[in-house]
């Protein structure tokens, strides 16, 4: 859901179709712009506001290409800007629709920079926007489904449903954390002494929306509104530090209503809090026409840094908030910083950069759940699995990437997919068929989709202690026809259950089941595991062909599912 900079831009390998043509995503739109002085700020770098306008235009054209009608920007996920772009360099923007829902669609946007003299390219940011197809004279538009073709497209298609789920509950997550007493107590009045008054950073500016600012439906471009918001936010940040700030992050935001030609757009900004090396600026956009009432268009939170001569963040002055609302914004900014770090750490970074076991707490629950499910979906979407062995219709596949060994065990069972999902999602029943599960207990029933278990497994070698695992199990039903049921597992740490001398603490980075409906009575079950040191001893002999314990386990799993597919317990569970 967030943006990340990974250095050099990696181009997707070319795919040649049977016709001899090079494959290109049918919704793909590209834009290339050379940065001129009129696009740049005082430092000779591309204005972020201008970049946002180009990104929004490119993404909107991609959405309209798929929808076949005009579209409007509904929301934009977090954007992390990792690099600046200088005058004379080329901005390359590529957008394509990852997945369509009913009347909305997710558009992925990749921004890279190209230096024409050195022939170097690097990634600037990666963003996701949600666009909504406008009603036509025939009524509400029902979008056709996207059909992913390449491995990358299939991965993005699969995870798009999980990102949508995150967007829908984002406001709820923020509200829950802001109500946490811990966040509220961090605003100590001692911090306000010898600090810059927040009132000094207040900015208000008005813009008249003219035809060049709007699309063919006379609605103001979302990118134009974002550009105006970035402008007042930059002025506000400059007033705190008496220097030119650099925008690093824009938090996820939603457009609450449309703006049209003729609107007077009032933009307000103020520094909410200054941390040691960064500051948060709150911005809002309101619109009115003549004597009409004021409409709230959008609010956003932007994080700025001030760089020294070596390009490193400088220490910033402290902020002294104004009474009442200022103190509230000050304290809420502390909570949002926690959310920001969780989102960037757990969602934006690559799977190989996430530690084996991540601390769990209520504030990062949804981000851990997202990371858990999306990691499994990414692993399942890979197309370079190698068949290692096959026995009685149970297949063992392996995949080695970046010196990490992954394996997949797959078979079909004569059990409806939903029944298999219910039976396998309760890890307490796994010891009925898996010899590697000696004991399993629920430590925390987080919600209906997420549960934390403690699992005890026998020792993998003689003379060593048994292992225990603290696992977060995240389950998802299919979002749409053609999606699998998903049960994702990963290790977390709980302060209430530290490692003990009696057990060797094992860790799972990515594991779980996908269950596909083959027919109304048959399902295909795939079990995945990204082998860690704690897991590898259990499966190394299977991969080497010296054992068939996993075949035995999966055969037992099939028997367990068939035996219990019509059990009263299963039926009762489904009735809940």
UniProtKB/TrEMBL annotation:
Listed EC numbers: 3.1.2.2
Keyword Mitochondrion among record annotations: yes
Gene Ontology BP, a term: acyl-CoA metabolic process
Domain spans labelled START: 385-563
UniProt keyword list: Cytoplasm, Fatty acid metabolism, Hydrolase, Lipid metabolism, Mitochondrion, Phosphoprotein, Repeat, Serine esterase, Transit peptide
Coiled-coil stretches noted in the UniProt entry, renumbered to this chain: none
This protein's GO CC annotations: cytosol; mitochondrial matrix
InterPro entries referenced in this protein's UniProt entry, alphabetically: Cytosol_ACT, HOTDOG_ACOT, HotDog_dom_sf, START-like_dom_sf, START_lipid-bd_dom, Thioestr_dom
Pathway: Lipid metabolism; fatty acid metabolism
Protein location: Cytoplasm; Mitochondrion matrix
PROSITE patterns: HOTDOG_ACOT, START
Domain HotDog ACOT-type: 25-137, 199-310
Reactions catalysed, as given in the entry: tetradecanoyl-CoA + H2O = tetradecanoate + CoA + H(+); hexadecanoyl-CoA + H2O = hexadecanoate + CoA + H(+); dodecanoyl-CoA + H2O = dodecanoate + CoA + H(+); butanoyl-CoA + H2O = butanoate + CoA + H(+)
GO MF: carboxylic ester hydrolase activity; lipid binding; long-chain fatty acyl-CoA hydrolase activity
Amino-acid biosynthesis in keyword set: no
Primary residence: cytoplasm
Record function comment: Has an acyl-CoA thioesterase activity with a preference for the long chain fatty acyl-CoA thioesters hexadecanoyl-CoA/palmitoyl-CoA and tetradecanoyl-CoA/myristoyl-CoA which are the main substrates in the mitochondrial beta-oxidation pathway.
Protein name, per record: Acyl-coenzyme A thioesterase 11
């Amino acid at each position: 859901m967030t943006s990340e900079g990974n250095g050099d831009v990696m181009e997707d390998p070319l795919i040649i179709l049977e016709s001899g043509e090079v494959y290109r995503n049918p919704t793909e739109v590209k834009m290339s712009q050379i940065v001129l002085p009129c696009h740049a700020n005082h430092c000779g770098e591309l204005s972020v506001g201008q970049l946002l306008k180009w990104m929004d235009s490119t993404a909107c054209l991609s959405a309209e290409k798929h929808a076949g009608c005009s579209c409007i920007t509904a929301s934009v996920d977090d954007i992390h800007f990792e690099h600046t772009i200088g005058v004379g360099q080329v901005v390359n923007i590529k957008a394509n629709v990852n997945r369509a829902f009913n009347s909305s669609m997710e558009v992925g946007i990749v921004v890279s920079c190209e230096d024409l003299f050195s022939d170097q390219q690097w990634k600037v940011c990666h963003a996701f926007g949600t666009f909504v197809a406008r009603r036509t004279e025939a009524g509400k538009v029902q979008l056709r489904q996207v059909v992913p073709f390449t491995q990358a497209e299939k991965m993005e298609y699969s995870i798009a449903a999980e990102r949508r789920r995150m967007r829908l509950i984002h406001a709820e997550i923020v509200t829950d954390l802001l109500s946490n007493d811990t966040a509220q107590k961090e605003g100590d009045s001692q911090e306000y002494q010898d600090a810059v008054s927040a009132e000094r950073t207040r900015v208000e500016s008005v813009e008249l929306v003219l035809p060049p600012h709007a699309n063919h439906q006379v609605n103001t471009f979302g990118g134009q509104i974002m550009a105006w918001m970035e402008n007042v936010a930059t002025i506000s940040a400059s007033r705190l530090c008496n220097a030119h700030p650099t925008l690093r992050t824009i938090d996820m935001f939603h457009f609450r209503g449309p703006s049209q030609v003729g609107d007077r757009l009032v933009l307000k900004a103020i520094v909410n809090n200054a941390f040691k090396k960064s500051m948060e600026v709150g911005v809002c956009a309101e619109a009115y026409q003549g004597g009409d009432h004021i409409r709230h268009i959008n609010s956003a939170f932007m994080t700025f840094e001030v760089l020294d001569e070596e390009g490193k963040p400088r220490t910033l002055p402290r902020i002294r908030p104004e009474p009442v609302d200022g103190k509230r914004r000050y304290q809420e900014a502390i909570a949002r910083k926690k959310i920001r770090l969780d989102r960037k750490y757990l969602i934006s970074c690559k799977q190989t950069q996430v530690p084996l076991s991540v601390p769990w707490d209520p504030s990062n629950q949804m981000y851990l759940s997202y990371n858990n499910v999306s990691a499994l979906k990414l692993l399942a979407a890979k197309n370079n699995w190698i068949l290692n062995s096959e026995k009685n219709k149970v297949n063992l596949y392996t995949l080695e990437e970046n010196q990490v060994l992954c394996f997949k065990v797959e078979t079909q069972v004569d059990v409806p997919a939903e029944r298999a999902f219910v039976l396998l999602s309760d890890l307490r029943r796994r010891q009925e068929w898996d010899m590697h599960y000696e004991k399993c207990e629920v430590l925390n029933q987080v919600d209906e989709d997420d549960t934390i278990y403690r699992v005890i497994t026998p020792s993998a070698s003689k003379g060593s202690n048994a292992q225990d695992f603290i696992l977060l199990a995240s389950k998802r039903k299919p979002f749409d026809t053609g999606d699998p049921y998903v049960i994702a597992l990963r290790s977390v740490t709980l302060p209430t259950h530290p490692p003990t001398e009696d057990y060797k603490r094992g860790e799972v980075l990515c594991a779980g089941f996908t269950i596909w409906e083959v027919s109304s009575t048959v399902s295909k079950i795939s079990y995945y595991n990204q082998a860690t040191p704690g897991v590898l001893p259990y499966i190394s002999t299977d991969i080497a062909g010296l054992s068939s314990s996993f075949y035995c386990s999966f055969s037992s799993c099939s028997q367990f599912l068939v035996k219990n597919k019509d059990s009263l317990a299963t039926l009762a569970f489904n009735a809940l």
